[in-house]
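Blinded run. Sample ID left blank on purpose so nobody reads anything into the name before looking at the predicted structure. Input follows.
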Amino acid sequence: MAKPVPGLPTRDQILDFIAASDTPAGKREIARAFGLTAQQKIALKALLKDMADEGLIDSAPGRAFHKMGGLPKVTVLKIVDVDDGGNVWAQPERWEADGVPIPRIRVRERKRGALGIGERVLARTEETGNGWTAHPMKVLAPSAEQILGVLREEGSGALKRYWLTGVEKKERREFPVSDVGDAEAGDLVLCEIAGRPPRIT
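Blinded prediction complete.
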């Protein structure tokens, strides 16, 4: 992807950047790509809010953006069908785009027959000429055992603690996190509950 010209981007430039980005693109990533100053970052925040209000973009968990009616670059999918040809199909576990049909996504399995109906996967998605395609990154445990959420930092130094804010409707509460690994505050992470504070997997 070509390096953007520094300066506050236009609506079209933001949409192009989000579509072309290989990783989830949030306000921080957009500001970094266009080399924005502190003042321009404030203007960017207002512009992104306007674009969301106008229905041009939607936000995914972790504050990343995608085109309205589209899918986040990385998201949780649920396997809903395996057709006669052995093709695996999934739908997003979380879908809140009003008036837009839930997309049916073709899953590219690394090993044929590895996924069954009802299973949950964390997958990287891309829009192709024939619709959406998903590339599984990890098969997830039942939702009761793992939580998808945004990492929040509290305090500093020896008093620094991390909390996970769940993004799924049934888990919109905070959990203390015992092991954050390489994750940073604001990241969208998948945590495992094992009878103690969640740890990031």
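Unblinding after everyone has recorded impressions. The two ends are 30 Å apart (CA to CA).
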